[in-house]
């Protein structure tokens, strides 16, 4: 069966092109990180390679070094910035796995002992809360 092609009009492609706003916390030549608008917990961040791929399955392997370097930076920053006990890193591939946006991305979520994650793609967070949380992560990335 033929693979589904990459859709250049997916929502993260639009965010990467600056056509849709996002609360960006990090950017380099290969990777961008911004707040998830339907966070599963405070500080839920998405780390996204600029190179187009639908998910991990069709990505060029050269994507993963720069991508996971930033995943680690952001994981450390959310842990410090939110005083978290741990960090969950998640990544979904195709609808059966829970993927809903078809541009490769990694979820980085600060975790607190005894507090479960909210549902995946649950409620929208207020923009002012996302802005405050983004600033905490930027500050932790600077320190
Ligand atoms: P997936 O289900 O594909 O692994 O995750 C997609 C994530 O993108 C979800 O957690 C969802 O909340 C988030 N999301 C969906 N639309 C937008 C959007 O327009 N902006 C941002 N920043 N996040 C989004």
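Sequence proposed for the structure above (143 residues):
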């Amino acid at each position: 069966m033929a693979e589904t092609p990459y859709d250049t009009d997916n929502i993260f492609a639009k965010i990467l092109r600056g056509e849709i706003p996002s609360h960006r916390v990090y950017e380099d030549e290969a990777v961008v990180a911004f707040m998830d608008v339907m966070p599963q917990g405070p500080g839920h961040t998405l780390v996204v390679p600029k190179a187009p791929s639908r998910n991990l399955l069709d990505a060029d392997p050269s994507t993963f070094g720069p991508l996971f370097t930033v995943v680690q930076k952001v994981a450390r920053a959310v842990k410090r910035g939110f005083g978290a006990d741990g960090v969950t890193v998640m990544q979904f591939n195709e609808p059966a796995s829970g993927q809903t946006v078809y541009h490769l991305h990694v979820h980085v979520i600060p975790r607190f002992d005894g507090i479960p994650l909210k549902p995946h793609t649950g409620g929208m967070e207020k923009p002012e809360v996302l802005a405050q949380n983004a600033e905490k992560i930027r500050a932790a990335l600077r320190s």
